[in-house]
Design goal:
Elements lengths: L1 H33 L6 H12 L1 H12 L14 H25 L15 H35 L2 H15 L6 H20 L5 H22 L1
Helix pairs in contact: 1-3, 1-5, 2-5, 3-5, 4-8, 5-6, 5-8, 6-7
Length: 225
Amino acid sequence: MNIKINEKKEIIYLIIGVFGAFLGLFGVAFFNQYILMSLSLWMRIIAMIVTYWIIALIPIIVMIIAKDNLEDYGFKTDNIGWQIIAGVLIGTCMSLVLTLIPHLLGLGEYVDNGRRYKYLWQFVYEIFYCILGIGFVEEFVFRGFIYEKIKRIGKTDVVAIVGSSILFGAFHLLSGNIVQMIVTCFLGVLFCLFRLKIKNCSILSLIIAHGIYDALISLWSSLLL
């Protein structure tokens, strides 16, 4: 009986967390479209990172209410250095295979995010934004919160991988199209497998890997297109 009650709680927590994340995404999109460009450059630099955390706000609240901790969601306190190294290596390898090689094969337009930078500080900021904003938020929400909630309900990693990756793909539909959604779903599966199969790969590693991979898309596009 207690097991069923706990499962119902996890389902409710999952629904609230997912709804909150998607609601936060719309909030970020609204802010970027109607408010962001009215700010000064330095305010935009700060606001882009801070506002992206709106997406994680409700999942964080649910985590506190559910009395979960960061360790439940894949964060680890041991071997921090190796976790960081794992993240850097994973992100770099992903970029070489999934972005640089397509560029070299003449398929760069299919892995382009549309950003073009001319100055070094723009690339440096892109790395910070992609790690501290996009990487941190999306990995916490999808490979952390959502993955763990689905696993508690479905009892297996396979169910958690499929469920969290489908939601990860759907999350990117607003900023892309059905093809991008499918590709992002595939990336979600990869991130899950990295966490499960690679030694010292934690959510921290995925945050770094995700950020590096995203940031290098802009670098290769600016240099090669």
